[in-house]
Amino acid sequence: MVEDDTILGGAIVQRLKLEGLAPVWAQTCAEAIAALKRSQPDYMLSDIVLPDGSGEDVFRKAQPWLGDTPILFATAFGEIDQAVRLVKAGAEDYLTKPYDVDELVGRIRQSLSRRSASSASAAMPEFALSPAMEAIAEQLRRAAATELPVLLTGETGVGKEVAARYLHASSPRAGSPFVAVNCGAIPHELLESQFFGHERGAFTGAAQAHVGFFEEAADGTLFLDEIGELDTRLQTTLLRVLENGSYRPVGSRNDRTFGGRIVAATNADLGQLRAEKRFRDDLYFRLSVIEIVLPPLRQRREEIEPLSRRFLKESSTGNRPALKLSGDSLQALLRHDWPGNIRELRNRLQRASVFAKSDILEADDIFPEMRLETLEDGTLGDARDRAEADRIERALIASKGRVGEAAKQLGISRTTLWKRRGRSRS
Ligand SMILES: Nc1ncnc2c1ncn2[C@@H]1O[C@H](COP(=O)(O)OP(=O)(O)OP(=O)(O)O)[C@@H](O)[C@H]1O
């Protein structure tokens, strides 16, 4: 939920929690995009006027990370025009403020039930689709045959976790667990117990013993993603595990042995973090015995087409054949810079597959923000007419064409409805 009004935001968050949902609240456009990059939500609600941007800014910047997540905008009457443009560009709908929270909850529930019925499962994809990636696959296979720690670097979404899984699957440890940990996502106070586990009664609230990531990974692979965000205190403890192969669960008197392998990954500049003393040099040297750099998608554009076809196939549900790409959309895919890399490509195609109106995807199905540029601007009067016409059409659809009912819903007379509909069409 993106809402800068603290009173309204607080009330909605509280209500959504009571409904058993887990809202993440961002108060600015920047916070919203940072939250989206961390994890893809099932539903997104955004205000249209934010301290650092508009609804259109949110919509544009969210595209690489949004996947098939529906986005609903909340708008005051004065910005209905923008809300309509957003719906035309691909937002799910808009609510006019002040809105009824029951209606919001109802919409979220409806949307979630549709989504859970159609979510697909993900399998281990084929790894290398270009000469650049074939060379990387070769490096990973060579690393897999050794016991050395591996550091994977590259921009967000380039496939570092996929590479770590490939390494694990190619190693003699393939039959043992692969445990992936996002080092930046663990609350500070839980770090030790999450990594090393704890004994029953180790601290207030520790009613049961807890198995930490090291024990869970056993003699398999522990993948430490976003290693640059690891708390400095834990960096010291991790260094000790790497040096001695042993660790101690919280509240335990005995050390345990770690027989697994560590693969770490980061999209941050560890050199910079080291210079700022936020990442230990000694830990860096330990982790980066083998360092493999994954190139961004814009440097291996030959993968875009085969990956797209794969993602479209994955997104096709039931007996429906996979959607196809028009010539223009393929060109647009090849031209785009892909700041979110393969994750962005997957997200965009997944979203386009859900919302596509035909079997062939056009460029603006994949890049809906293009529609914001092409929707004509015109005068304020034109904009108001378009917004009105859109609202009238939607009321007519909702009332299955019953004009009287639509007019009542809109709070206008039947004659006014006909007149305004006529005006917007002329
Ligand atoms: N070679 C590939 N084939 C198919 N899908 C891929 C490939 N590489 C990455 N992906 C997909 O792209 C998305 C991002 O991949 P992954 O999580 O491995 O990236 P990452 O570099 O670890 O990202 P982050 O830095 O954000 O942790 C995932 O959905 C993954 O399945």
From TrEMBL:
Keyword Hydrolase: no
Lineage top rank: taxon: Bacteria
PROSITE patterns with a match to the protein in the record: RESPONSE_REGULATORY, SIGMA54_INTERACT_3, SIGMA54_INTERACT_4
Modified positions (4-aspartylphosphate) in chain numbering: 47
SUPFAM superfamilies: CheY-like, Homeodomain-like, P-loop containing nucleoside triphosphate hydrolases
Matches recorded under Gene3D superfamilies: 1.10.8.60, 3.40.50.2300, Homeodomain-like (1.10.10.60), P-loop containing nucleotide triphosphate hydrolases (3.40.50.300)
Domain (Response regulatory) ranges: 1-112
Gene Ontology molecular function terms on file: DNA binding
PANTHER family tied to this protein: TRANSCRIPTIONAL REGULATORY PROTEIN (PTHR32071)
Name of the molecule in the record: DNA-binding NtrC family response regulator
Pfam family, one: AAA_lid_14
Keywords associated with the record: ATP-binding, DNA-binding, Nucleotide-binding, Phosphoprotein, Transcription, Transcription regulation, Two-component regulatory system
Domain Sigma-54 factor interaction: 126-354
